[in-house]
Specification:
The protein is mainly alpha-helical and 266 residues long. It is 83% helix and 0% strand. It has eleven helices and no strands. α1 runs antiparallel to α8 (179-194) and α7 crosses α11 (240-265). The longest helix has 31 residues, at 99-129. The radius of gyration is 19 Å and the shape is globular. Residues 121-134 and 227-238 have low confidence and may be disordered.
């Protein structure tokens, strides 16, 4: 019969095994995913200045939210309540040392992200019907960061440091990458999780990362945000918001969960 410590480690090891399985599936998906021919053909017709403006819009959105908008986002959820839930979860897991406690945490995070995804869909479609494209980016980015902040808190991480902001931006960039670019970015994320990443001036690194993340989002969402700016058909572009929300949060949640499990494995 296993003692408490062995049972504790076994539960974590099983959850880490699930994480690795999900990481492998995500890696295979990024290798297979590609731009459909019709979307690629139409994207080539999008004027260059639209891409430039889109990149600037994402950069501005990230900068404004990180520098001035975090307080506004924090009004959309109860930090104290989430913090208390985390402490209760930790106490339950330490007491029971069972996998059920870890599963419950994972499912709670998933349910909250599903709610946020539904909100992003309603917001995107509503603005798409009106032919509003670029202004939607600030709202969409805000909803994304709300989901990421909540996920960080539910796994016991404070998002307010410069280092954590860099990590969040890097997660966002990698989440929309494909193929070799995804693999390279994912290796950097793994270096961060393992503590092997060299220390940086995190404030400066964060500013540089804003540009890289904005470029990645602009490249990947170019067509959808372009047509969202067209009245009536813009609903198609707006409907892409929950798809991208899910895409980003799937990667973000997986890495925060892995980071949490590595941290408590001891």
């Amino acid at each position: 019969m296993k003692n408490g410590r062995e049972q504790y480690k076994t539960a974590i090891e099983k959850e880490l095994k699930l994480v690795r399985k999900q990481e492998s599936a995500l890696q295979r998906a990024t290798q297979k995913s590609g731009t459909s021919k019709w979307k690629e053909a139409l994207s080539k017709k999008v004027p260059e200045k639209v891409y430039v403006n889109l990149q600037k819009a994402f950069s501005k959105a990230f900068f404004l939210i990180f520098e001035k908008g975090t307080g506004i986002i924090e009004k959309m959820y109860d930090q104290e309540s989430i913090g208390q839930e985390y402490l209760i979860h930790e106490f339950a897991f330490q007491l029971k040392a069972d996998r059920a406690s870890l599963k419950k945490l994972r499912k709670t995070v998933k349910m909250e992200n599903l709610k946020n995804m539904a909100v992003s869909g309603g917001e995107g479609i509503g603005l798409g019907l009106l032919g509003i494209g670029l202004p939607d980016i600030v709202i969409f980015t805000g909803l994304l960061l709300k989901g990421i902040y909540e996920t960080a808190l539910r796994y016991g991480f404070d998002y307010n440091s410069e280092k954590e902001r860099y990590f969040i931006l890097k997660l966002m960039e990698v989440s929309v990458k494909k193929g070799e670019d995804w693999e390279e970015g994912n290796r950097e994320i793994e270096e961060f999780l393992s503590g092997r990443m060299e220390e940086k001036n995190w404030a400066e690194a964060g500013k540089e990362q804003i540009a890289r993340t904005a470029e990645a989002f602009a490249m990947d969402m170019l067509f959808l945000k372009f047509i969202q700016g067209l009245a009536v058909v813009g609903i198609i572009g707006g409907a892409g918001n929950p798809v991208y929300y899910n895409k980003v949060m799937k990667y973000v949640e997986l890495k925060y969960r892995k980071r949490y499990l590595i941290g408590i494995y001891g």
